[in-house]
Specification:
Order of helices and strands of chain A: EHHEHHEEHEEHEHEHEHEHHEEHEH
Structural class of chain A: alpha/beta
Strand content of chain A: 15-25%
CATH superfamily of the largest domain in chain A: Alkaline Phosphatase, subunit A
Mean pLDDT of chain A: 96
CATH architecture of the largest domain in chain A: 3-Layer(aba) Sandwich
Shape of chain A: globular
CATH class of the largest domain in chain A: Alpha Beta
Oligomer: homodimer
Distance between the termini of chain A: 17 Å
Largest sheet of chain A: 8 strands, mixed
Radius of gyration of chain A: 22 Å
Largest interface: A-B, 22 and 34 residues
């Protein structure tokens, strides 16, 4: 935005992953409506509220487009591969021509059918052992292939070489009960790479055969480093991320955020915010458990995760940031046990926000907020405006 | 709009400049909520209400884009230079290749540092004297350069000649405490013009040296007549403007409005509306004081300005226009003492408007209006529809 200007004011954006929910039939209340959340409600009273659509009404966002939209990037224009986000999340230094994919260690039976896509979520230590084995034993002509441990069953696969292309289908069918798929080239330039990756999978299969429970790999999201402008470039901000999960760190790094040490939970994340508060003017804090518990279909546990955030908020409010935004990247209703398309509660508190009548932070209350229902790509303009970091448009 | 048709019905659009505000901390009420405004409230009861974003949520509009959007022009597509608006506002007849800039007479100290960008708002008479001096004494090879008095410290600079380009930076740094900037060419075709303008500034500096308090010029907004379709062409309307301030007259002329004599205040503007009511079918009435008092940070005076409009309304209502729209081009909260990004109250009264539940004309009440929050570029479609000046779309 040409109108952006640098100033000392601070913006804090707290993304509560998978925040939005649906009413539980027994009570008619959503997770947010069921949680004890004094602090979130108090902030709502002092905020302008609304509901955001991160991609588009009716579209269920993945984590990457959900976050990109909140950061002001059109998530349809910037369709970032999962592989690249996973690789950046563990600090891999990727060159423009390198290819990255997201890998799972999985379990297949003796007919080659996937019985567990996550191999019972093996330990990160076991994962490291398997990656070491693959890096030592597997060698394919035409590319240097490296596997790097992410967490539990997840690893990053990177291909380094000449003439490689990410235009490939996935081997991961994203369901159990079927065999891994053969990787296909989506363009003629990708034929060579498809051959290389299929040979890698074949060798990995042999190499892992006698392992248990993880005896196979699944690959998806082949991608290259995208040409995406940084937040500093667009907004003239000095942004930092306080995120625990690798993928969100990778995403933040991709758009030029500095990665700060998060510690192990929301309390230590907010302590980190205190420690680095003077050094940056935009902070992205990511809280994951709401999404994880929603995906587990565990309504009560998601309610507890919301309460965990609420309890940590007084120490954040103590900093009195010029702009505080609390929202989510998508809804993850426990009743659906997965991401969903429902719009996500949003609130923005600042000296200049013009608070509306909303008194509770929930899906239903935010619907009556002063911002109404709006596209998440407008969030950054609102953040910048309320931080008085935007010049006037036109004469 | 291909659907437009000409009919005898009348549309009156009253733009209360900088209308929207923010709550004053002492009372929790905005300027509109604090004003005694029986007529505005009565109109709200009979209207469909809403809130408009003139440029985009979070973006603070200048006066030109704010008005263009209400007239139905995409303000990002039609980014009109300040120079051209200023020149048209004083009836200068510009040819397509002429260049115009907005000029300020200012005060600089003996080190060349700007001490007052407006030279204490010198009188219009003094301004005329200085323009005469410059037009007589300054002569630059390559272009005929004319300065024309606008008001107080403001003048229009016009360049007439061959091969000129408006792609120039400003000399006006828009702040005191620094020196005027050298004009730079933004493209290779503008090199010649940059040289001409810098030579003009240098000669003007010498010429004004012994004057006081205005001893220098500042220039900004170099621009040419834009290629913009008229309202008659788009809407098949015969539009007229009743505006006192030159800039708004310039803007209205730019899109093909006839300029009617406004007198000196909102009462005489409405008298002019009566006088010319039969001759046109669209009237734009512009009221400035709300914006000026908001920019002064004078909450009480802005409240009084709103009351001044309210008092003048019965004579407007006496005409019973087929469509009456009352809104603003942007918000100018007195607490912020400047334009802001907050959406602007809007109401439309007509036989066919389907009034909503709104009983008061204010930011908070309009949020609950039947139009919700919507882009100002939709205002003209609503005006035309309610005036029954639009054909059906499609079979």
């Amino acid at each position: 935005m040409k109108l952006s200007l640098t100033s000392p004011s601070k913006i804090v954006l707290l993304v509560i992953d998978g925040l939005g929910g649906l009413p539980r039939p027994e009570t008619g209340k959503t997770e947010l409506e069921s949680a004890k959340k004094t602090n979130l409600n108090q902030i709502a009273k002092e905020s302008i509220c609304g509901l955001i659509d991160t991609v588009s009404p009716g579209i269920t966002p993945g984590s990457t487009p959900g976050h990109l939209a909140i950061f002001g990037y059109d998530p349809i224009k910037y369709d970032i591969g999962r592989g690249i986000v996973e690789a950046l999340g563990i600090d891999l230094d990727l060159k423009p021509n390198d290819i990255a994919a997201r890998g799972n260690f999985c379990t297949i039976d003796n007919k080659g059918i996937i019985t567990d896509r996550r191999a019972g979520r093996i330990s990160t230590e076991k994962n490291a052992e398997l990656c070491q084995l693959l890096n030592k034993e597997v060698a394919v002509a035409g590319a240097r292939i490296v596997t790097t441990t992410v967490k539990e069953h997840r690893f990053a696969l990177t291909l380094h070489g000449k003439g490689l292309s990410p235009e490939l289908t996935n081997s991961d069918p994203q369901q159990a009960g079927v065999a891994p798929q053969k990787i296909e080239a989506l363009s003629s330039q990708a034929q060579l790479t498809a051959g290389i990756v299929n040979e890698f999978i074949s060798q990995a299969h042999k190499c892992l055969k006698s392992e248990s429970p993880a005896n196979m790999v699944l690959l998806r999201g082949f991608s290259q480093h995208p040409n995406i402008p940084t937040m500093s470039k667009i907004y003239r901000l000095k942004p930092a991320a306080i995120a625990i999960y690798p993928m969100y760190r990778g995403l933040a790094r991709l758009i030029g955020m500095q990665i700060l040490p998060p510690g192990s939970n929301i309390t230590t994340q907010i302590e980190s915010l205190h420690r680095y508060y003077e050094d940056y003017d935009f902070f992205f804090i990511h809280f994951k458990a709401t999404d994880s518990r929603g995906e587990d279909g565990n309504f009560e546990a998601k309610v507890q995760a919301i309460e965990e955030v609420d309890n940590a908020l007084p120490n954040l409010l103590a900093l009195n940031p010029d702009v505080l935004i609390i929202t989510g990247d998508h809804s993850t209703p426990a009743t659906l046990a997965g991401h969903s398309w429902h719009p996500v509660p949003f609130m923005l508190k600042s000296r200049w926000c013009f608070p509306d009548k909303v008194k509770m932070f929930s899906e239903r209350d935010c619907l009556e907020g002063g911002l109404g229902r709006f596209p998440a790509t407008e969030v950054m303009s609102l953040a910048m405006a309320n931080a008085l970091k935007l010049n006037k448009f036109g004469a």
